[in-house]
Amino acid sequence: MLLVRFSLLSALVLAVWTRERIHLEPGQRLHDETSPWKLVRRARADESLDVAFAIKTADATTLENLFWQISTPGSLLYRKHASLEEIGRIVSPKSSSLVEIERWLASEGGVDVETNCTYTINRDFLQCRISCQSLERLFQIELYHFRHPHAPNETIIRSKKLYSVPSNIASHLDFVGGLLRFSPVDDESSTSKISQPTSVQVSASHLRSMYNVSSNVGSNSSNKQAVAQFLKQFFHQTDVKEFFLLFGGSFEHRDKIDKVVGPDTGFAGIEASLDVQYIMSLGANISTWFWSTAGLHEKQEPFLQWIMDVGNTSDVPFVFSVSYGDDEDSLDSSYMNRINQEFMKQGARGISLMFASGDDGTGCNGKSFVPSFPASSPYVTAVGGTEMSDILFGHEVGNIISGGGFSNVFSQPDYQKSAVTDFIGSSVHLPKSSYYNRSGRAYPDVSALSNGFTVVFNLIPTPGVAGTSCAAPTFSGIVSLVNDHLLQEGQSTLGFLNPLLYQNPTALHDITDGCNEGCQETGFCSQKGWDPVTGYGSPNYPTLLEIAKKNYS
Ligand SMILES: *[C@@H]1O[C@H](CO)[C@@H](O)[C@H](O)[C@H]1NC(C)=O
Ligand SMILES: *[C@@H]1O[C@H](CO)[C@@H](O)[C@H](O)[C@H]1NC(C)=O
Ligand SMILES: *[C@@H]1O[C@H](CO)[C@@H](O)[C@H](O)[C@H]1NC(C)=O
Ligand SMILES: *[C@@H]1O[C@H](CO)[C@@H](O)[C@H](O)[C@H]1NC(C)=O
Ligand SMILES: *[C@@H]1O[C@H](CO)[C@@H](O)[C@H](O)[C@H]1NC(C)=O
Ligand SMILES: *[C@@H]1O[C@H](CO)[C@@H](O)[C@H](O)[C@H]1NC(C)=O
Ligand SMILES: *[C@@H]1O[C@H](CO)[C@@H](O)[C@H](O)[C@H]1NC(C)=O
């Protein structure tokens, strides 16, 4: 008895002295030989790196409840949006947590939070620029420079191994950004490609008439929409102007981006030009922002930086089109769950986040499908791709590339349970059940045309641009247009769309043909109602506006 008590006591003493360490994000995919990023050299002690401490949300349950109430028609709080400050009251961590983190940074890393770090307004993130020497000590890692063949002149600093923190610190953190994940470069994670222009060519006015936008354009000066960019891609105002000279003759529009957030120089990229030109064609005459999040030289994780910045800014656009994604199975669930909370914070503020669903169908790793995150998040709207079945008398069908399937991490949200059950019960073709988990969050939610787009790029009209990156800004522009009319009538904006859409599927144009690609064979197939290729279908402006107005009280 005495012996047992003694050993318990000594274990306790030991724990205090050696401070048990805990790996955060143990499921994050690490650098290996298959990575395009090649190791260059060990980082010098005096080089520095930007890291972001994702401090645990004080009251995650209240945040989630509020998000669902604000997003679900019929709830008393539906579209009664919260301000950034109100969100802060729910999520801001306790001062004692911050004190403990700051003490650790000072004592083990020599980091002075006053000089080396900044908090977000709601103190949910702490971003610091810290020397590699201190980082290696704080996290018990070694840092190296890595280079990507497509960006030969730049390197980024990362760890090859998991990082750890003392257990008392681990209890205050979801993860630390900037140490493990590699920035996507070029087209790896962007979802636009140039294909042979054999398909039907799509123009701005064609999209507008197809989706029944007719002559509607925005007119409320407080409305705004944005595209988010990550890959050092930029747009040129001269391309936008040229695009609308060529293709904007039949509708009122603006031909200039109103605001650039982040770095405002760079080479024009296809992805950036596409997003800007098409969100401005559908959401015509609506103030458009270009929210750019830097490149490799900025030393951080662009996607994380974007969502952190949006959550640290009071005046933000109501709609974001985002053509970006990563393999769900390469990320740790603690990272994804925290990003989901960031999506909830923005949804509760009345912001709609639209993500391209990806261009690899179901995705495949040989044994199972590989969903794309954030499209697989239950808290965003995932936009899949369609195409025309025939040049002359075609109808809209699911595009084989359209990203879709079931999350292996997030369970199915209530709003889509009956839609998915109907699909599983009536689908004439289902892939092998070992490939996917039918009780996961199913995506996409909606879709739009995804090939044959012409983009003006360095003043040259480039036809044949394809990918779900075409669909996301197209759908997003129409959501902005709906928002515009709501604002004119004194209603609030749509915010997170999915509960409204799943309650009112007839607002969308059902796509019933076409399958996406799976593992060396067909993946899922479109059919009547919701399906994991095209969701509930493509936008129909008048019916979307009607359900948006009708469900407001
Ligand atoms: C958050 O915004 C405030 C005010 O604009 C700024 O001072 C601060 O540096 C920002 N924090 C981060 C982490 O970006
Ligand atoms: C904190 O910032 C100062 C000034 O930039 C820098 O000299 C110092 O190395 C930083 N401290 C750490 C631990 O990185
Ligand atoms: C890299 O730097 C070299 C020399 O400064 C320059 O000629 C080249 O264009 C750069 N490459 C890229 C991809 O920026
Ligand atoms: C375009 O939007 C502005 C407000 O941003 C509005 O004053 C103007 O009337 C709109 N143009 C049309 C044709 O509706
Ligand atoms: C399937 O997903 C559900 C909910 O996300 C989870 O509880 C279950 O463990 C998963 N099943 C398998 C076999 O992965
Ligand atoms: C524009 O929207 C705001 C709400 O954000 C509203 O107060 C204003 O009356 C609207 N103006 C017009 C002209 O529709
Ligand atoms: C556009 O409206 C027509 C007439 O109401 C309808 O038949 C068609 O399906 C609509 N298009 C879409 C994409 O919903």
Structural class: alpha+beta
Low-pLDDT residue spans = 1-9, 11-15
CATH superfamily of the domain at 193-548: Peptidase S8/S53 domain
Bound ligands, each once = 2-acetamido-2-deoxy-beta-D-glucopyranose
Shape type? globular
Count of alpha and pi helical runs: 16
Tell me which CATH architecture of the domain at 193-548 applies here: 3-Layer(aba) Sandwich
How many strand elements?
28
CATH class of the domain at 193-548: Alpha Beta
Briefly note the CATH topology name of the domain at 193-548: Rossmann fold
- Helix share, percent: 25-40%
Distance between the termini: 67 Å
Strand content: 15-25%
What does this structure look like?
The chain is α+β, with helices and mostly antiparallel strands. It has a domain at 193-548: Peptidase S8/S53 domain (Rossmann fold, 3-Layer(aba) Sandwich), CATH 3.40.50. The protein is 31% helix and 22% strand. It contains 16 helices and 28 strands. Strands 11, 12, 13, 14, 16, 18, 19 and 22 form an eight-stranded mixed β-sheet that branches. It has a four-stranded antiparallel β-sheet with strand order 4-5-3-9. It has a three-stranded antiparallel β-sheet with strand order 2-6-7. Strand 6 and strand 7 (156-159) form a beta hairpin. Helix 2 packs across helix 12, helix 4 (95-109) packs across helix 6 (132-139) and helix 11 packs parallel to helix 12. The chain starts with a helix and ends with a helix. Bound molecules: 2-acetamido-2-deoxy-beta-D-glucopyranose (NAG) (7 copies). One 2-acetamido-2-deoxy-beta-D-glucopyranose binds next to loops.
